[in-house]
Specification:
single chain, about 325 residues, mainly alpha, 2 domains, two-stranded antiparallel ribbon, about 70% helix, about 0% strand, elongated
Amino acid sequence: MDFFETIMFPFKWLVSIIMVGFHEGLSSIGLPEASGWTWTLSIIGLVLVIRAALIPVFVKQIKAQRGMQLLQPDLKKLQDKYKGKTDQLSRQAMAQEQMAMYKKHGTNPFSACLPMLIQMPFFFALFQVLSGISTARDQGKSIGAMSHEQVVQFDESTIFGAPLSATLLHNPEGNVVAVYVLSIVMILAMTASQFITQKQIMAKNMSEEAMASPFMRQQKMMLYILPVVFGVGGINFPIGVLIYWTTTNLWTMAQQFFVIRRMPTPGSPAAKALAERRAAKGLPALPILGGKKADAEAEAAAAAAVIEHKAQRVQPQRKNRKKK
C-alpha cells in the first residue's frame, strides 16, 4: 500500500460506511437492493451527510470571504506602498504587514478554501471506491464497508440503462448511448451549477471596492477556468461520482442563494436589496454575520438611508398656517 493509499484508506471506509448505511436503510423500506436508484439515493445521502457536517466550516468560509472583501481597499494601499520595491527586506516587510492585517481582522485568504479542501479527500475516496467496483467484483473482493455481494449489486445497477460505475471513456457492459447521454448531461449540470454559483456571488454579493481589486480579476479568471477544468476532468469520472459532484454543487448553489439573500456582504447590491426589503416592512437592519462592528454600522447606515429616502418621498404636505 503506497503513501496515497494509506492516507485515503480511512476516507474510503467512511464513504463506503455512509453509502452502505443509506443503502440498507432504503432497502429496509422497500426499495430494491440491486436497483441503481437505491444506490443513487445512497450517493445523494452521502452528499447530505458531508455537507451538513461542513456547515460550521461554511460559516467560517463566509466570514473569511467577507473579511477579505472588506480588506481589499487596505490591501490595495499596502500594495501601492511597496510598489516597485523588489528587495528582500521590502518584500518581507510587506508580508509581515499583510499578515498583521489578516490577524487584526480575524481572516486570511486560505479560510475561503476550507470547505473545498475538506471535501476533496471524500471526493477522491468515492472516486476510488466506484472506479474499483469492477476490479473488486472480478477478484471476489469487498471495498471498504461494502461486502462482495454489495459490490456485485452496485456493478450491475443502472439508471436509464447506464451503469453507475461506467465513465464516458470506459463502459465495458452498459448501454453505450445511455452512458454517453447521461454522462454529458451530468457534466453539463455539474459545470453549469458551479458557474452559476460563482457568478451570483460576483454579481450580487461583492462591494464596489472588492469588484475593483486585483483579487477580483483573479476571481473572474477562475470563474471561467474552473468549470472548464471540471468539465474536461468529468469525462474520466464514473457516473456515480458525477451524481455526487452535481448534487454537492446544487447544495452549494442553494446555500449561497440563502446567504446572499439573508446575510449579504456590506456594500453589495444584495445588501442594498435586503435593506430595502426590511425598510419596506418597517424592520430594523440585521447584524452582519461575523459580528464586526463596522459591518453592522455599514448595513445600518444603508437601511437608514433607504428609510430616509422613502420618508422624503411620501412626506405629507403641511397645511397652510393662518396668518397672524
